[in-house]
Design goal:
single chain; mainly alpha
Length: 73
């Protein structure tokens, strides 16, 4: 698996960990909770970090399964 991230020159250790966590989550290398812990962010803060990078927390398959559950299927 190859993960590439751009690190701006002004990056801090915290921002590098956040970028790495988001990239690893996007590649399914870490779960949401694992990536959140790596980034050192709370639940909503990490969710916002993903949204800022246009990374969906859910796959289409996960959403389809959730919709089946909601419909009682």
């Amino acid at each position: 698996m190859k993960i590439e991230i751009e690190v701006p020159p002004e990056a801090t250790k915290t921002s590098i960990l956040e970028e790495l966590a988001c990239a690893m989550f996007q590649k399914d290398a870490l779960s949401f909770g694992q990536a959140r812990e790596l980034a050192g962010l709370g639940f909503f803060e990490f969710q916002k970090a993903l949204a800022d990078r246009q990374i969906s927390r859910y796959t289409h398959e996960m959403l389809a399964e959730d919709m089946k559950y909601v419909r009682g299927e």
